[in-house]
Automatic annotation (TrEMBL):
Enzyme class: ligase
Naturally occurring in which organism (per UniProt): Hansschlegelia zhihuaiae
An example Gene Ontology biological process: methionyl-tRNA aminoacylation
Protein name, UniProt field: Methionine--tRNA ligase
InterPro entries: aa-tRNA-synth_I_CS, Anticodon_Met, Met-tRNA_synth, Met-tRNA_synth_2, Methionyl/Leucyl_tRNA_Synth, MetRS_core, Rossmann-like_a/b/a_fold, tRNAsynth_Ia_anticodon-bd
Annotated gene: metG
Superkingdom per UniProt: Bacteria
Alphabetized GO MF terms: ATP binding; methionine-tRNA ligase activity
Subunit structure: Monomer.
Amino acid sequence: MPDKRPYYVTTAIAYPNGAPHIGHVYEAIATDAIARFHALDGRDVRFLTGTDEHGLKMAQTAAREGVKPFDWATKNAARFKEMDELYEISFDRFIRTTDKDHYAASQELWRRMKAAGDIYLGKYEGWYSVRDEAYFDESETVLGEDGTRKAPSGAPVEWVVEESYFFRLTDYQDRLLKLYADNPGFIGPDARRNEVLAFVKRGLQDLSISRTTFDWGVPVPDDPKHVMYVWVDALTNYITGAGFPDEGSELWRYWPADLHVIGKDIIRFHTVFWPAFLMSAGVELPKRVFAHGFLYNRGEKMSKSVGNVVDPFALADGYGVDAVRYFLLREVPFGQDGSYSHDAIVGRLNSDLANDLGNLAQRSLSMIARNCEGRAPRPGPFSEADAAMLASVDGLLAKARKAFEDLALHVALSSIWAVVAEANRYFAGQEPWALKKTDPERMATVLYVTAETVRQVAILAQPFMPTSSSKLLDLLAIPTEARDFAALADGGRLTPGVAFPAPQPVFPRFVEPAA
Ligand code: ME8
């Protein structure tokens, strides 16, 4: 029976203070693969992504550009959305934190935390990093060589003294530790979990959650000279996207979220502050927060100031959307840091895509076109080798499900490509081109088994490479309603006699442009 339960997955919402970079597209692609995987597996998926538009960083960048923060955000949010569309990100909503319903949700969350007695007025005196939009205890900062104080990220910090509302985070230490102990899967990967545990065990301080020295934010209910600290409203986006506070809404069935996908630098906000806010407001907690690693350009950290940000639009132009999607998810073990280079992507593109899968499909389909009247071959009895090949490809769904359960997306891909390699060995070993003269029936069986393997590989590759996979499925004349995971294994074997369109290469080799 298909599992039709709701599945709610989110990305972090990006600061649209500039153009998107490769880290943003990486997060979108990985989350999209997860969303598509569960949708193909029958789940009722909702996928939320968007932009985080308030805060001092946005206000300052807009001021430098000489435009209003909202206009600056609008311009860049459009670029993020274009990037998502270009990369086939299957989001259900692109939320902007300047959306009206998000103001209502944030203010309602605030009211509930206040009603719970967790918000009080005080005075903040301490360090703040605009780039990180984060407060730091002096012990966490370091004095740079230039004599200025820096956050752990290297961003400059400034001394802030202002009236501020505080959230009683101190009171949540035990409840948070219990949450982590009772739900070992709440924070992943383990390295991040250990980091958060150590942080919370050291003891928490109350959190400043409003600002008065600028007004680019969600006004605090009943005290509009304060705007909410940008992270309070930013985190709330996840429940805005599920219809909060209208708990009778159609969308509320998606809450609690199954998974928040974020980068490792923002784990504390998502696994300490966010669950504490929700506990305070009496809202259920998300089931899991998983932090992916950082991408570095040939090993170097990317940043706008270093000027080595890789433009996702240029990447898509250079290699193709599916090649970039495949490369990032195959090359970087999900949860670890990874690095990008031209040579590495071309290597993967030419070996895994053009040689391994592309050639397998092209060679078997062109033989079918020439020797089987361009129709799905009719197989004879299966030999041991045929049965072994089919058993391997039939076993992939279970492996892929396990890999997605563990959020080991790269493992799902390596299992699929191990079957592609096996299919290439099978094809070469069976020599269907030689069977053409000696045993045409046997040739038909080998071509059938190969094409059936390609069918299942293409179905399973859809979360990673939606466009190329669907081209492959078109070449096998698979109807759109037979492309989900229910059609894997004997849920939908290739039907003998079905006419195929003329075969075309799906994964061209990358050829270096002339210098
Ligand atoms: O943090 N490699 O926004 P953001 C991989 N607005 N991932 C990276 C990366 C890199 N080089 N650089 C950034 C914010 N990211 C907040 C989030 S959520 C309620 C608010 C990831 O635009 C980063 O870890 O700085 C985060 O998950 C996402 O990109 C957006 O980063």
